[in-house]
Amino acid sequence: xxxxxxxxxxxxxxxxxxxxxRALVEQVIVDEQTIIIKVRREPLLxxxxxxxxxxxxxxxxxxTTAVSIKRRGVGTRLVLLDAQHNHPARCDPALVKAIAxxxxxFDELVTGRARSLQELAKRDGISRRYIRRLVGLTFLxxxxxxxxxxxxxxxxxxxxx
Length: 161
Description:
Blueprint: H1 3-13, H2 19-24, E1 25-30, E2 34-40, H3 41-45, E3 60-72, E4 75-80, H4 83-86, H5 93-111, H6 117-124, H7 128-135, H8 142-149
Antiparallel strand pairs: 1-2, 2-3, 3-4
């Protein structure tokens, strides 16, 4: 499949066939260490450029960032390496909720309010296996929990429960 056909198929499959996006993005270059997005100036300025002195010779703004490709099992993730420094931290609410639920269930087991994982599972209408996995989050290091709460967890850490 040619690059042009691939691009057209990708645009339509991902809803990027919008004329506004096509007018703005001139080119996207992805290699193993960087991503470069070339953005046309005219749509941003809402006027055509009047002279060569207004812009570089190609008239595009280049946005570049360092990346790393992480493969795990059948999945592949593109990780922005400098995202931690350029963007605000984003807390993962699902991961925070999973840690909180695991700690609450652990507390119930330790204090005797619940006698077993099976009792918790029956009461809450979820599987014993799920509860066991979340209770294990109780034993994460305090430093890691703090990083998760601040949205600074390692990019390889995702909620898989």
